[in-house]
Amino acid sequence: AEPNAAAPVPAAPVPAACPPIRLGYSNDARQVAEGRGGNANETLKDVLKEMAKAGMISASNIDTKSRYPDRWHKHKAGLFRCLELVAFAGDEFDMVILERGPEQNIFDAAVEQNIFDAACRLEKAAHEKLLEFEGTSLEMNAKEDRPKQPVILALATRILAYKKRCWEATGKQGKHSAAPLIELDALREMEKEQQSTPPNYRNVRSYFN
Predict the structure, then answer these.
(1) Which residues touch 192 (CB under 8 Å, ≥6 apart)?
(2) Full DSSP string of 170-201
(3) Are 86 and 63 in contact (CB under 8 A)?
(4) How far apart are the C-alpha atoms of 124 and 147, rounded to whole Å?
(5) Dihedrals φ, ψ of 151, to 5°?
(6) Exposure of 184 by Cβ count < 10 A (0-12 exposed, 13-18 middle, 19+ buried)?
(7) 5 by DSSP, 3-state: which?
(8) CA separation (Å) from 94 to 50, 60, 115, 124?
(9) What is the distance between the alpha carbons of residues 164 and 172, in angstroms, rounded to a whole number?
(10) Could you say which DSSP state residue 169 is in?
(11) Who has the most CB within 10 Å: 7, 23, 136, 150?
(12) 138: Cβ contacts below 8 Å, ≥ 6 apart
């Protein structure tokens, strides 16, 4: 080779295949996609406050016309069961406060506190009524080693158990999950009548349900 000849240019390396791009979820999106969203530990008052600030509450029909947060799509039946109890036991004035939340400055500390206080009162009324259905009270529950808490999924299970009792007392019409809630005293009277009804005879109340 000639002494002054240029050195050959090395060939460019072949690039390695690019790794596939991993699309990331935000925490909220991941929870929605996986159907979790921390539902297991969410209390009724916190979700009511969230729904109020997002304009999801219907005061006149809180259990049938209100909308729910996306992360509750998997357990929406349980959430609406709790809202049914809120409608049964709560004060309509507090429901109106929640419905009108978006009409106010929700970033104002006083407004936010007012919404939260209303949500707390509704949670307390609902839980107190459910404990009454179960033959106990807030005071007695507080003295238990493991007092029952107003966590939505746990509340929903307990409400469903009471609704089944209502369903049985009213003639087992339709699905027990759709049975209307009945005050405990009235339910006990119906159960007494049912026990006194002879076998193979239908209780007269069942004809009106």
Answers:
(1) none
(2) TT--S-GGGPPP--HHHHHHHHHHHHHSPTT-
(3) yes
(4) 14
(5) -85, 135
(6) middle
(7) coil
(8) 15, 11, 8, 12
(9) 9
(10) H
(11) 150
(12) 124, 127, 128, 131
**pLDDT tens, per residue, the chain with 209 residues:** 555 555 565 555 555 544 443 434 344 444 444 444 568 899 999 999 999 999 999 999 999 999 999 999 999 999 999 999 999 999 999 999 999 987 766 667 888 899 999 999 999 999 999 999 999 999 999 999 999 999 999 999 999 999 999 999 998 889 999 999 999 999 999 999 888 766 555 555 555 55
Residues 87/115, Cβ–Cβ less than 8 Å? no
Give me the amino acid identity at 69: P
CA-to-CA distance for 48 and 130, rounded, in angstroms?
17
Residue 132, burial from CB neighbour count under 10 angstroms (0-12, 13-18, 19+): middle
* Burial class for 207, CB neighbours closer than 10 Å (0-12, 13-18, 19+): exposed
Q: State how far the Cα of 136 lies from the Cα of 20, in Å rounded to an integer.
A: 58
Residues 175, 155, 162: CA angle, nearest 5 degrees: 40
What is the rounded distance in angstroms from the CA atom of residue 69 to the CA atom of residue 104? 20
Rounded CA gap, 49 and 39, in Å? Answer: 15
Structure tokens at 90: 């709560």
Is residue 153 within 8 A of residue 78, CB to CB? The reply is: yes
